[in-house]
Each structure stands twice: as C-alpha cells, then as structure tokens.
Design goal:
The protein contains 10 helices and 13 strands. With about 300 residues, it is of the alpha/beta class. It has a 9-stranded mixed β-sheet, with helices on both faces. A 4-stranded mixed β-sheet has the order 3-2-6-7. A hairpin with a 5-residue loop joins strand 11 and strand 12.
Length: about 300
C-alpha cells in the first residue's frame, strides 16, 4: 500500500450541546461539554491510519497543552508526527462547536495552522514523496501555500487529492485544477467553485463535467444524505448514502476523505473506494466527537457487509 501524507489543520475541538443557538446578547445553558482532538487534517490522518495506511501528518501546533495533546493523540492512532512543527509564537488552533440535535455551528481560530509555510510542506514532500505516494491536502493553511504545495507535489510524482473546502466568493486559480488527480468537494464547495448547485442528477453531471473540463482527472462530490457522485468512463455514477442514527456529523467528511485516500492507496477502484468511504463516514456520525468517532477498517468492512445482506 502507498503511503499517505496529510497536509491540513490541527485543532482542539471544544464542543457543547444546546437546545438551540443563542441570539446575540443571549446566554443559554449547555450540556455534555467535550474537548477532543480535531481539525480536518488531523481527522483525515487518523481515518487513514485507522484504515491501515502508513500515514504522515504535515501541520503546525503551538507550544501549549492543546498542541501536545493533539500530537500525542495522533501518535496513539499510529500517525507519524515528524513533520508537525511547533511554534512558540502562536497558540494551537481551536474550534468552538455548538451541537443542536443533528446540526452544529462552528467558529475556528486557526492559530498556528495559519503560520504553516510552503518550505515546511516542501520539506515533507521531498522526504516522503516517492513511488507515487498520496498527498491528501486542503486549503486551511492559505491559498498561496496550498498552490505552491500542490505544484511541488505534482513535480514529485505524488497522487494529489485536494479537499477544497472554500468560503463564499472564493475561487481557485486554473492551475489548481490542471492535472489534479482527485478533487473532493461537498455540495456547498461545488456551488461556490462551479456556480452549479448539485441538487439533482443533471446538475451533478454538469458540475462534474465542469471540473473535468478544467483538467481534473477525477472529481467526487459528496451530497450528505444523498451519498456521493463521480464520473466513470464519462458516465455519472452515484454511490448512495447509508441510513444510520445521526448523533454527531462533525467528522463525516474527514472520515470519508481519509478512508477514500486509503482505499485508493490500496489500488481499489474509485467506485468501490467511495462505497467503503461512505460506510466509514456513516459509522462516524453515530458517535459524539471527531477522532474518537472514526471506525477501524474491520468495523467499516463489517458494516458494509451487513448493509449489503
């Protein structure tokens, strides 16, 4: 199996349940407070490791309690942290999460994540980027660093998966798409980047063709309860979602991406990889929290087998 390098955010998630979101100036009573390791990059790395991949985290934390907790938890899950740098100038990233039923609201202070430099990512790529290993990356460290890292990964023959989580009004430069091995986006990302809301099969196909026309070799659009879609030999393929009791959806997308990368690292075809990633993500949303909710390969395999019987 190929190695997986994850470049992305590392945050401590401070999460609490509430009956409803407070309005400005209002104080509400919450419950079930938890402080758990998270961040898209950290969650993806844990997912890949729990699925059996040799996984390397590239990121940055502060020289503080949260930073030490995040890195120790990664190590416990089997993730190499040799390329996680520590800074005394900035605090570790923190996310404040309010859980209201199956919905959640999040405010994130990226902290040290925002100070990750291209030179640090480049060093990791040069040290690990052999034999078409996989780089799973996001935009959390800033668009400039991401684009330089993406170009470096291509020069070093890595298989690049870009998880393009974007904000309203954000666009990616054309060079981000050209030659990209796999683009993974959700419904909102798809609408922002392409101008197409993937609300039905026709719109999904049109969106996938939009990204293919810009040079993306493969694109996967996740549709929450609607599963995910991609193009196979020019035809749209939909992998349905799995019905489970939703407890906390906060780590579904990260689990999906990390599992998908692992399946591809094991040379599994894309459609089958999407099916397995869907099963893992479904299991993740049945538990509270981020990394502790991520299933193992066997748990996802058993769930998928049971669902197909």
């Amino acid at each position: 199996m190929k190695k997986i390098i994850v470049y992305g955010g590392l945050n401590m998630d401070l999460s609490m349940e509430c009956d409803r979101l407070p309005v400005p100036g209002e104080s509400l009573r919450g419950s079930n407070f938890v402080a758990t390791p998270g961040g898209k990059g950290g969650n993806e790395a844990v997912a890949a490791a729990r699925m059996g991949a040799e996984t390397f985290m590239v990121g940055k934390v502060g020289n503080d309690h949260y930073g030490r907790k995040l890195t120790s938890e990664l190590v416990e899950h089997g993730v190499s942290v040799n390329n996680v740098s520590v800074t005394a100038r900035d605090e570790t990233g923190v996310s404040l999460v309010l859980r209201c039923g199956t919905e959640r609201s999040v405010v994130t202070d990226p902290g040290a994540n925002a100070k990750m430099s291209y030179e640090e990512v480049r060093a990791a790529i040069h040290g690990l980027g052999q034999h078409s290993n996989i780089l799973l990356m996001s935009l959390g460290g800033g668009i400039d660093v991401a684009m330089q890292s993406l170009a470096c990964a291509k020069r070093n023959d890595l298989f690049v998966i870009l998880r393009a989580s974007v904000v309203e009004g954000m666009k990616l430069p054309d060079e981000a798409y050209a030659g990209l091995d796999l683009l993974v986006i959700n419904r909102t990302d798809c609408r922002i980047l392409s101008g197409i809301a993937p609300t039905d099969d026709g719109a999904c196909a049109k969106a996938l063709e939009f990204f293919a026309g810009r040079g993306v070799r493969q694109c996967v659009i996740t549709l929450k309860g609607g599963g995910s879609v991609t193009l196979v030999d020019g035809e749209m393929v939909r992998v349905p979602g799995r019905k489970v009791e939703v407890v906390d959806p906060s780590c579904a997308g990260d689990t999906y991406a990390g599992t998908l990368a692992t399946c591809l690292a094991d040379d599994m075809p894309l459609k089958e990889s999407m099916e397995f990633a869907t099963a893992a993500a479904a299991l993740a949303i049945t538990k509270v929290g981020a990394q502790e909710s991520i299933p193992s390969w066997k748990q996802a395999q058993d769930f998928l087998k049971a669902a197909q019987e």
